[in-house]
Every structure is written in C-alpha cells, then in structure tokens.
Amino acid sequence: MAGSLNDISIRIPHTMKTGAEAEAEIRAVRKRYDEWTWKAAEELNRRFNDREIAGQLRAGRYRAILTAPLDEARLMMYVEIAELQDYFRSVANRVRAMQERYGRAGAVRYAVLDTNTTLHFTRFDKVPWQKVFGKGTAVMVPHVVVDEIDTKSYQTGDKKISRRARGVFRLLESVLEAGPENATADDGTPVFIAADEPGHARLPVPDDELVASALRLHQPRHRSADPCPRLGAACTAPARHVPGRGQRTSPAGTGTGSRRARAGRGRTAATRTEGIRRILPKPGGTSGRERLVNERDGQGRQERADAVDREMAARLLPGPVVRALGRWWEVNASAYADGTPGAHSVRYTPGRWAQITPWPSALAPTSASDDVALSRAEVASAVADALRREAFREALVGAYVWGKGKRGTPGGSGPATLHKILAFDGLDAALAAAVTALREQGASQAYAALQGRVPGLGPSFFTKFLYFTGIAVPSAHGPRPLILDRVLSRRLRRMAAAVGRESGHDVDGSIAAWVWSDGNWSPHRYAVYLSFMHAAADQLAADEGWPSGAAPDLLECALFTTAWDTSG
Hints:
Blueprint: H1 2-11, H2 20-47, H3 51-55, H4 60-67, H5 70-105, E1 109-113, H6 115-120, H7 129-133, E2 137-142, H8 143-152, H9 159-178, E3 191-194, H10 206-217, E4 258-261, H11 301-315, H12 319-332, E5 345-348, E6 372-375, H13 376-388, H14 392-404, H15 415-422, H16 427-440, H17 443-450, H18 459-472, H19 486-503, H20 510-515, H21 523-541, H22 552-561
Parallel strand pairs: 1-2, 2-3
Antiparallel strand pairs: 1-4, 5-6
C-alpha cells in the first residue's frame, strides 16, 4: 500500500503547467488515485473488521480532489497522500505493538472485574494475576463497571464508599492515560477497558450486562490471518478500535465490575457481533463509484462526523451555553479581569511529590507539607523559564503537578505515574520534537508529536504541557494550543449530540460519543477542537455578557467548570 501511495505521489507534477498536455497529465494522475483508493479500500475491508480504516481513503478530501480545478486537485493530492501515509504507518505501528504485547501475554484467560471487587478488595493493579491465575492472564474491566464506579463516586450517601469509588476511578483514569500498549498491573498483567461501541444497547440489569461482556470474550474466533481483533478477528488479545484520522486512538471507556471468566481466544465487548459491513459497494454497480454507505442513512460514519463538525462550526455555542457562561462571568469577573485564566489556581501538597526530579524552582519546595496554591500564571512563568534553558522535563513537571493538584498521592496516579514518565529514555526527544513542531508547524502537529510517544503520558496531560508551552512559544501556524481533557470533551460531546439530533446527521448521539470520547483523541480531533474553541471565543466576544478581549483559554477554563441545561 505504501508503495502504491509513493507511486502516485511521484507522478504528481511539482508545478502546474499550462496547456492540454499538462492538464491531461494531472487528469491521468487523478484517475490513478481514484482507481487506487477503490482497490485499496476493497483490500482493507477484506483484511480488517474496522471499516473506518478503509473509510480514510474516501473521506471528504477525496471528493474535493475529484471535483476541484486541476491545480487545486494537484495540491490537495499532495496533502492527502502525506496524511494517508502517516495514518497507515500509525495503524501498522499500532498493530505491531499490540501483536508484541499480547503475543507475550499469551491471552489464554481473562479476569473480568465487577464493581464490588474493584471497590472492596485489593486494588486490581496490586493483585499478582500471573501467579494466581497463571501465565497469559489479562484483566478486563467492562464499560458498565466504570460507569457504576463513576456513579458511586458522587451519588451515594455513604461518604466512605464515595471516597473509595473516586480512588478507583482515578486508578482507572491512569489506566486510560497509559494507553492501550502500556496499561498493566504491577506484575505486568495487561489491563484493558472494554468500552461500549457507539449505539450499543445495554441489558437492563448491570450484572447481566457484565456477564454478557464476559461471554463476548468467549465467542469463537473467526478464521483469519489478521493480526488483531477489530483489525482482524483472529487475535487472542482484547479488541481495540483503530480510529480514523478524525477520531480517537483507543477506547475511552471506563468500566464496572468483577466476575472472573475463563475465556478462550476471542473478541472483547468492543467487538460487535454484527459482522463486517463494507465501506464500498462491490464491483458491478452501475457507476462503480457510489458514496460510502451506512446501515441507516446511506452516509458513512466518518462523513457523518465531518457533517456534525461543520454544523458545530457554523452554529458555535448554543444559547443555553452562552447564558451559562455569562452567569459564570458575573461570578468570576473580578478574578479574571484581565480576560485570561491566569489566576485560575489549584491546590497541591508539595511533600507528596518528593520523589520527583527535576523540580521547578518556581514551585514550593517538596519539603513543604502544607497545601499550596498554584495558578496558571505561575505555571506559565515556570514553563517559560524551563523552556529558555531547554529543560523540557522541568516544564512537563510544572504542567503535570498543576494538572493533578491534590489528586496526586505518593502511591497513586499522580507522583507514581509522573515518576515513570520521567524515567522514559525518549522523553526529552519527544518533548523537544513537540516544542519544535509547535513553533514551526502548529498545535495539531505538536499534538501528533506527543501522541503515543511517552508511556503513561496521555493527551489530558500532554495538552497541558502544550498549552503552557504555547504561551511561551508562539506558533507560526494556526491557533494556540488549549487544554483538552475528559471533562472538556464531554462538554463538546453534549453540544455535538444536540447539533447532530437537530441536523439529522446523528440522531442517536453515537457519532458525538465516538468523536468526543473520553480520551486519546487524534490530532485531527484536536485541530477540530482548537478551531471550534477559538471561533467560539470570537462569538462570545461580541456578547455583552462576556469580556470583549478575552482569550480562548478563558472559555476553556469556564467550560471546564460550567454546567447548563437545554432549557437555557
């Protein structure tokens, strides 16, 4: 496939000449590109269960290339082919990483956790799974368990249970932040969260849903030489969704509970039993070039996601959100009078981070045992100072500590995870590459430079690093980086779901849940987020209930802490 892409790329003229011969040359290259996408999509659909992989070949830009004036088509082909090459390299790397990880694990049995087990017994990351159940054990947390734990963290009258639930949920968050190739218990046992797919209808009784999740692990595998489920159903490892360029790169779920289930080789709950639907119709149709099809409305999922994005870009913030943000500003105007969230502070306990080095001198010394406030402005100053000295680790520490606040404990996902991140040999190179990409190419390229590069460092935290770096290092292209985490993604998901229902592009909210997942968003999704937030900030600036010169990060800060209802 890469060879074919390269073959097309080298045939594209570097400059647009005039005359019939030059036009014929471009038309020939465009025809070759069209034919290649057709054949490649058919081949990908034979090899992979996830039809969105082939869907990348004929997304929005494909149609523009076929209909645009020849010179514009030439330029767009350059961009499209470069992005496709990057995308398929990432897919190949992901498949190889999963083969290596789960091949070592053997995946001969799964331990399926339930809510009671995760709340009332030994922490699942401390259990010696390989010793208790034998070599090849993997731990699976069903999505329904994560939701139950999330609910118990705030909807119970028992403060002790709520406190335990919040602790377990933070532990599950650390599993998500580690990424699918790196999430393990202390003994190296793979841990994964089997996220519900968009549109999945749960059974009415949570215990029944949990058992169903375990039974799906036990389904007989299909005969296939494909290396991994959802990419190919023959792998013994848990299923993982490989996203489109505009989508997440790993499941974003969290889970519920615990029954141990012995399972043979098979697929997880993330792998649907519906069978494979083709992105493209089989050859023999009248035109041979029908549009991507979807089981419900004749429109592919990626196309529907693009349509929802366009609608959101056109509509921006709905009335209820604008009014809620106006109320937020009335309360917080004095704190953020300069139109920035620089005064936004969190509290942390320096003594809990004693194991972390290098430690920014602008932060309170780790010998301090009392809680200390740390503002965005202070972190921005510390990061700028560190970047001037190319002390990238120090800059990351400042952003990470501010992001965790008091949630970090010596044995938890704060200091312990950061210590592992700092121990990664390639950390300096990855951070330096991201800073360079931000300065020379833009925020989404900087995001791509960090995504999946550092074990344990997920986008919820590396976007904090990019955000503070962006204050000190202006980008030559595009909008300034902003923080994107689970809370903000859920805010965007809610708005996207409303827009999808009203426009008819996403009547059940499945597209909104897919693109605005709980983590591991793609560089394209991050670019969509930045574009929306900067445009929405301009929208608010024209509203009398919002400061006219406010920065986009003030909107990010406000959305993080603001709730609204549809009644406005």
